[in-house]
Amino acid sequence: MFTQYAIAATDQAIADSKIDFAAMSLQYSANVGVIWTPENGGIRTFENELKRYYKRDGIPCFCPSLISKMIVDIAAGVTSIRHKL
Fold this sequence. Notes:
This protein is mostly helical.
């Protein structure tokens, strides 16, 4: 969900600012970047998964989306790809 919220927020912000990335020169668009950071990165998710792991007597059963939740740059990466930055 985090990435979907990031996409929606950045799409709205870009629309509100009336920035047209397609009209920008390659030289100018090379200076545009995306910085998006969550409150705590993926540390909280990792900690919660470890707690669940130890409560289950060490049975290895992790959330299927653990890795994608841990990648704190995924929202910035998806936004950059979406807008060809």
